[in-house]
Design the sequence.
């Protein structure tokens, strides 16, 4: 095997920590750099700072064999041939646009600390999700500072819960390359070397210009968000007409051109990516003078936010018109199962709104309770489903954890005060719950229909 490439990964959050561990597993010599001392201390001990299946063994292995280090010391960037920028680009306060300050400070860190390589220019690989035009800006800034660097924009498409698999065996890789062909070739060759196992596996690799690479990422997330909001708008139609959105999704999903994935209606999308990415995309389109091209994303966003209103209204309706003093068992707080991430979580938002309307909310989650206890100390969080269900007037399943999907309706009924359930993710069998004596309500679903 070729000796590994010396790599730095700047930003060790979700994306960076997984990327660093996966690159060490590919045989490279990796240093992860982050400003958060607590996070770095955990990672340096081989312990993930978030829940992600399959990450811990890779971290432990890399740390143990010395191929993976984590530090807050930016001088550790010296000597690396490749610098990955993997910092966050959260929504800017009071605006739809992305906060780009971490990206620019990563670029300044490279300028201040990177050292020239005897093998040719250093290669700066952008992985963060950024507004179109950023890659060229990064290249210009490095050139202005006299750094001999080739910038490659290589967006990531990893899903939380599958991050290791999506990094090591993605369904495609995209390299955004500079217009200068010779320098572009250098960037391509170096990134190919870093991704040798991906290239060897024959995974499609697309070579494109910078703006295309940047747009691919936000276009993909916008399409996914649109698909979810489309099916949620159908759920509204189903509620109004007596149709069943799950059967509708199943039927249209058989058409290959539509496909069945991401057609799960419910309380909508959340997390650290889809909501802020569609908003940042709209903001950037406005700056480019083509805001009309993305007006539909405004609707995608509003359909999504309306799901939360609908869930709260439905809870109130089922509780007889008032939520004050009603004991609501909330099952699930994270934005999706197999994650401990509660960023922009529809479940947590709904739990908070119920609490705001006077409900006695008792919530639980297999992984998200620690984050919620910090973020929302006012919410009553318990550690088990049994505790949450005990004496409940209404149950709301808001994150589709397998433990909840497989709840036994007969047993659950013995725990609650009143057998009423809102299936916010449409993952329960309406007939099984209704037959067990529950008042079951899905999102755009009929429990009474025999078909
Ligand atoms: C998303 C994209 O799926 C990844 O491809 C992308 O790389 C990532 O953002 C990113 O930009 O980094 P992720 O945020 O992990 O990944 O979550 P998803 O699996 O996309 O789920 C997003 C939300 O949509 C969740 O709240 C989920 O419950 C909801 N969802 C998903 C639905 O409501 N219905 C569906 O049919 C599918």
Sequence:
């Amino acid at each position: 095997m070729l000796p590994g490439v010396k790599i730095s990964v700047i930003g060790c959050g979700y994306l960076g920590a997984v990327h660093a561990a996966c690159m060490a597993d590919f045989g490279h010599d990796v240093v992860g750099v982050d400003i958060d001392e607590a996070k770095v201390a955990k990672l340096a001990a081989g312990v993930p700072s978030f829940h992600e299946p399959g990450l811990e063994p890779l971290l432990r292995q890399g740390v143990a064999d010395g191929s993976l280090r984590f530090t807050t010391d930016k001088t550790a960037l010296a000597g690396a041939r490749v610098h990955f920028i993997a910092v966050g680009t959260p929504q800017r306060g009071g605006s739809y646009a992305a906060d780009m300050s971490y990206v620019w400070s990563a670029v300044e860190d490279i300028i201040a600390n990177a050292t020239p390589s005897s093998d040719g220019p250093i290669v700066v690989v952008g992985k963060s999700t950024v507004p179109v035009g950023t890659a060229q800006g990064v290249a210009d800034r490095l050139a202005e500072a006299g750094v001999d660097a080739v910038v490659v924009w290589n967006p990531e498409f990893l899903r939380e819960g599958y991050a290791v698999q999506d990094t090591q065996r993605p369904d495609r890789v995209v390299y955004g390359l500079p217009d200068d062909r010779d320098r572009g070739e250098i960037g391509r060759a170096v990134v190919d070397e870093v991704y040798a196992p991906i290239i060897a596996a024959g995974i499609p690799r697309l070579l494109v210009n910078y703006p295309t690479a940047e747009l691919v990422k936000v276009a993909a997330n916008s399409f996914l968000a649109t698909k979810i909001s489309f099916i949620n708008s159908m759920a509204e139609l189903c509620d109004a007409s007596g149709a069943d959105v799950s059967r509708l999704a199943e039927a249209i999903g058989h058409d290959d051109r539509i496909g069945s994935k991401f057609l799960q209606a419910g309380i909508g999308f959340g997390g650290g990516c889809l909501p802020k990415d569609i908003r940042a995309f709209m903001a950037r389109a406005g700056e480019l003078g083509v805001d009309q091209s993305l007006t539909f994303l405004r609707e995608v966003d509003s359909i999504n936010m309306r799901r939360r209103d609908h869930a709260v209204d439905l809870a109130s309706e089922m509780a007889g018109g008032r939520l004050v003093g009603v004991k609501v068992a909330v099952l699930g707080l994270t934005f999706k199962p197999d994650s401990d991430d509660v960023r922009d979580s529809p479940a947590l938002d709904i739990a908070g709104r119920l609490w705001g309307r006077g409900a006695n909310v008792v919530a639980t989650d297999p992984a998200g309770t620690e984050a919620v206890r910090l973020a929302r100390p006012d919410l009553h969080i318990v550690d088990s489903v049994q505790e949450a269900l005990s004496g409940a007037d209404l149950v709301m399943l808001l994150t589709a954890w397998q433990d909840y999907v497989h709840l036994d309706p007969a047993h659950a009924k013995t725990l609650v005060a009143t057998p009423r359930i809102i299936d916010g993710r449409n993952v329960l069998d309406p007939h099984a719950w209704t037959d067990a004596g529950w008042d079951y309500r899905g999102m755009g679903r009929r429990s009474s229909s025999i078909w």
User: Anything to note?
Assistant: The two ends are 59 Å apart (CA to CA).
